Amino acid sequence: MRFRLGVMIGFGAGYYLGAKAGRERYEQINRWIDNARGSEAYGTATDKARAVIDLGVERARDLVGHAGNGKTDGIPSPS
Questions:
Q1: What is the dihedral of CA 10, 13, 18, 20, to 10 degrees?
Q2: pLDDT at residue 18, as a whole number
């Protein structure tokens, strides 16, 4: 319940402040975002994040593959 109330208050405050700022401010913020997305630093950070995610996915696939093959890597099975 507290989380929902916080989300509703945050949404309301954002809506109010956004409406008060007007269209010009909205367009200015969009220009800033577009400039940031076009920067070299953004591209580098995006590439690094993708590499980390891909590595995590590969590791998860390896773990699931080993578990599915019944291999326990030297761990005795309970019998």
A1: 180
A2: 83
User: How far is Cα 78 from Cα 37, in angstroms, rounded to an integer?
Assistant: 54
Please state, in angstroms and rounded to a whole number, the distance separating the CA atoms of residues 3 and 38: 35
| Sequence-separated (6 or more) residues with CB below 8 Å from residue 66 | 73
State the pLDDT at residue 47: 96
> What are the DSSP calls for 65-78, one per residue?
HHHHTT--TTPPPP
Position 68 scores a pLDDT of 66
* Residue range 28-45, pLDDT digits in tens: 888 998 999 999 999 999
Closest by alpha carbon to 32, among 49, 19, 14, 24? 24
CB 59 within 8 A of CB 67: no
- What is the 8-class DSSP label of residue 37? H
